[in-house]
Amino acid sequence: MLQFLEKKDRWGNALAVWAVVGMVFLIPICLWSLVSMKMENEVHDWIPKDNPDYKVVSWYRSHFPLDEVVLFTWEGSSLDDPRAERLVGKIRGTVDANGKLRGGSKFIERVCSPHDLIARMQKNKISRSDAIERLDGVLIGPGPVRVRLNEFGKARREKVVDLLRRSAREALAIDLEIAPAESVAAEGLMATAPVATDPPATSDGSADASTETSGGESPAGESVTPLPHHDLIVTWRGMHWDAAKMAALKALVGQLRLPASRPDEPGHAVVEDCFHVAGTPIALAIYLSEAGNADRNEAFRWLTAAAEKSGIAPNTIHMGGSAVIGSALNREVMKSVWDKAAPASQIHRRSIILLSGLVGGILALWLLKSFKLAGMVLGVSYYTTLVSTALVPMTGGTMNMVLVVLPTLILVTTLSAAIHIANYWQHAAAADLKTAVAEAVKTAFVPCLWAGLTSAIGQASLLTSSLAPIRDFGLYSAIGTLISLAVILYGLPALLQIWPARAPRAEELNNAFWNGLATWIVRHHRMVTVISLLVSTVCIGGLAWFKTETKVIRYFADSTQTVKDYGFIEDHMAGIIPVDVIVRFDRESQQELKFLQRRDLIRQIQTEMEKLSDISGSLSLVDFLSDLADPGDQAHTRERARYSASSRVIEDRVKSGDQPGAKSLLVIADDATEFNAEGDELWRITAQVAIMSRRNYQELRSELDEICSSVLRKTAGTAEKVVPAGALRSYHPGASHFVTGEIPLFLATQHELLSSFVTSFLGAFASIAIVVMLVLRNPIAGFLAMVPNVLPIAAVFGVISWCGVQVDIGSTVTASIALGITIDGTLHLITWFRLGIQEGKSRAEAVSLAMGHCGPAMWQTTLVVSIGLLMLYPSDLILISRFGWLMTALLAAASISDLILTPALLAGPLGYIIELAARGPAVAVVSEKPEVTANEQRERLDEPTVPAKPHLVRKVVRIRRAD
């Protein structure tokens, strides 16, 4: 390194000049690369392809193709809302003279409305009221609670409303929203225009693409059933997810009484009836086309504009679905990087990432007290960030919700290392400005090299994760750290060589505080060690409540439109996340059970599923088949024959394709796989589950398994069994079932997330520990050096687990990164401690020397990095916000541990091992009691010291011969 700084080319130019020129040359290339940056946040692509749950989902999708679906609803919508049919018409286009649809949207492949499904059910002789009931919680909302007052109550409406709100709050702990009844006469009960039949809508977008769009009979021709008269409409958050509370409220409303004028008289009843009628709001299931999936933002803009032309106010629109949340993730990530809509004067809104870097830069300028030195430190930090980030598109990678914090991380970590180099230079420059760069690099090269390598190892440990975003982050952050190391060790010294900053005065490097702190820690090192271990142990106990979070909606702040949309849809209509149950009947069970008997088993499973909390509704082929009951074995032969004939007719109709939409809900397996045999019959039940609730999806999955198992035990058979696929599959004679869809993927992601967190941290710990052991040439010393870095990280995660904070995909990378960063300070302290020992100082003096040289740099870097990362906290994307404050907490805790526990260990067992290795077995243990006063020691250590010129303090060293 020194040879590099001292060498010159044939024209007499220092090689440092060429190093700077090379750095400048890369800038336009990196800027060009950043222009091609792409965003990718497809959550279903996180899971590795060999994951067992992913395999089942892939098998399921091979039989029931998955389309991107958007649940589109608006406030005030209902079954008789003419705006729904106007919007459907704009999406589908108009029929020309040749009977083909013209116009419409290129972004939308097809749309399905509740009217389509009701019309199809009515064709199978299902009454309209039954059809609406079957779609309740799927595409039709159950409607609010409606209250009809008696004459006495109508005359005192305001008092009734106040009493109802107060009673509900006191008795049921709910805050009611009460509004007067709408003036619409037949709300929720009438469709007004002819509709076309599309495949039945499901929350995951599966539909029969082969079904032709044909005109269907409109229910508009039916007589309109008037909505019963009512006076008040009552709603509250989550009202449809708690049946017991709903029943309790209805009972409370029915018993509501206003107090009488006299105390001895009974109260006056005010309510005549309390009921709710399904039909409001409604949703359209909109299936995006290939063009729509390629440009979702434009698709949603077109859809919003079409809705506005249909009379729907844009501020009343609510959308949900995987396509919606994926687009929202991309949008929020880009807003964190650069939000064009925000005023340029409000930097915290324009770019939270830029704000983080600016704050770190300002702090560095303040701490270094030199514009030129701070400018160089900031310059190399921003340069490293530019090059590291540009590598992502340059290597064909895409930006995601985890990688978005990469620029901030590289910036603050480079700032941290650069400040260390700057502090080394300041100490050397105070002695001799001409040799300052060479002396600083000479002293800093080894600790900075090892510190950079350990940071890169900690980040590279994330490559063991099975989740793609974490692996990408580990790869690019490790490469970025190595780039940072090269720039810090070559680029910054080159700049200092060409444009040296002002040398600080000796009094500016006064380290009296750090020397005093070191003296106190040395005197009480046993007490400090014990207290640190006890506090850490208590905090680590919180890990018993450690949990991970994979619900993508939890990555958004409550104030975002995405959360508001999801809240409205789930509070008023249906759950958004799909869970699918696939029931398989083998050939023998198909021969044993008639088609309608198998239908009855599916209906039984579906009915029991809908009783579970957080499932708003479900849909299966059963909902589109007539209710022909099984006469039973005791029935007359003619009835059983009629039932058998009807069953064969319905089965032939379904399997021949004459039943519209049946292909999306029942298929016959053409080929044998590990999950089915050829000719197996696969029935699909799709249910919609709340994603906004705190429901434990593992419990829900277990309950679904139990329901299916209890029903399918009724089947029998021995032929063509398929080997069960472990815990993913419950096999019964003649039948088996699978719980699949997005919820199993969520559970698999949670498991992979926890596994990634543990394996990456353990991998980082083991790798870094080996490096530290090699540096110290002693395994025990290496282990002891890791303790001050591991304990605070475990303690912080214990505390947040105690507080109920769940770890998301962005938080899992923080532990390994923090470990790699915080070990830097430990290595710098040990380096200076060992220099002090080699100079002949006692352990106490060596600790003071190390703290005097490293303490300022360590707290400065911690302040810059922590405050810089804390600036991410206001982000609307919780994943980014949590990464910022969690990294701040980890680094702050680790820094405190490094500045307190590490010196205590250096004064105790760790220092003893290092001292023994440095002086050899012939050296006696140095007395820990200083033979000079504290003031004399502090004055001596405050003097500028050049590490390359050792000063032996013979007063405190006693040498004896080896025996």
Could you explain how this protein is built, in words?
By secondary structure, the protein is an alpha+beta fold. It is 54% helix and 9% strand. Strands 15, 16, 17, 18, 19 and 20 form a six-stranded antiparallel β-sheet that branches. Helix 16 packs antiparallel against helix 29 (843-870) and helix 17 packs antiparallel against helix 18 (468-498). It is elongated and about 105 Å long.
Structural Rg: 35 Å
Proportion of residues in extended strands: 5-15%
* Uncertain stretches: 183-224, 716-732, 922-935, 937-963
Supply the helix-strand structural class: alpha+beta
Distance between the termini: 42 Å
Largest sheet: 6 strands, antiparallel
Number of strands: 20
Summed over residues and divided by their number, the pLDDT gives a mean of 82
**Helix segment tally:** 32
Helix content: 40-55%
Q: Shape, please?
A: elongated
Present the secondary structure layout.
Blueprint: H1 2-6, H2 15-35, H3 52-63, E1 69-74, H4 82-92, E2 94-95, E3 101-102, E4 108-112, H5 114-123, H6 128-135, E5 145-149, H7 151-155, H8 157-172, E6 177-180, E7 195-197, E8 214-216, E9 232-235, H9 243-254, E10 257-258, E11 268-269, E12 271-275, E13 283-288, H10 290-294, H11 296-309, E14 317-320, H12 322-337, H13 347-350, H14 352-368, H15 371-394, H16 406-431, H17 436-460, H18 468-498, H19 512-523, H20 525-540, H21 561-572, E15 577-585, H22 587-592, H23 595-610, E16 615-620, H24 637-656, E17 666-668, E18 681-689, H25 697-712, E19 730-732, E20 735-741, H26 742-776, H27 779-802, H28 814-838, H29 843-870, H30 878-907, H31 909-919, H32 934-942
Antiparallel strand pairs: 1-13, 1-14, 2-3, 4-13, 5-9, 5-12, 6-9, 7-8, 10-11, 15-18, 15-20, 16-18, 17-18, 19-20
